[in-house]
Amino acid sequence: MRLFLDECIDRRLMREFTGYNIKTVPQMGWTGIKNGQLLGLASQEFDIFITVDNNLPFEQNLPQFNLAIIILQSQSNRL
């Protein structure tokens, strides 16, 4: 399974996903790309997109992307 961490998530979270192929936005060279384009790119390379962006469902038409999206609910994006 290929996991993709949004740039708003601390990359150290990758250590918690042992046994998975996981990359971050900066590792892919996609820093600064807007959500719609980012999700399009991610859906071609990954199975799951992990973010803390609670507004994502209101800003994007998520069903158009062939990608599972996990929105983490937390008070902070710091580890």
Oligomer: single chain
Count of DSSP E strands?
4
Q: Largest sheet, if any?
A: 4 strands, parallel
Could you list the spans in which at least 5 consecutive residues all have pLDDT below 50?
Answer: none
Principal-axes shape call: globular
Spatially, the strands of the biggest sheet line up as: 2-1-3-4
What is the mean pLDDT?
Answer: 92
Classify the helix fraction into a percent range.
Answer: 10-25%
Instruction: Give the N-terminus to C-terminus distance in angstroms.
Output: 23 Å
CA radius of gyration: 12 Å
SS-based class: alpha/beta
Order of helices and strands: EEHHEHE
- Beta-strand portion reads 15-25%
Q: Helix count, per DSSP?
A: 3
Can you lay out the helices and strands and say which pair or pack?
Elements: E1 2-5, E2 21-24, H1 25-28, H2 35-45, E3 48-51, H3 56-59, E4 68-71
Parallel strand pairs: 1-2, 1-3, 3-4
Notes on the structure:
Helices cover 24% and strands 20% of the residues. It has helices at residues 25-28, 35-45, 56-59, and strands at 2-5, 21-24, 48-51, 68-71. Strand 3 (48-51), helix 3 (56-59) and strand 4 form a beta-alpha-beta unit. The longest helix is centred in the middle third of the chain and has 11 residues, at 35-45. The protein is globular and about 30 Å long.
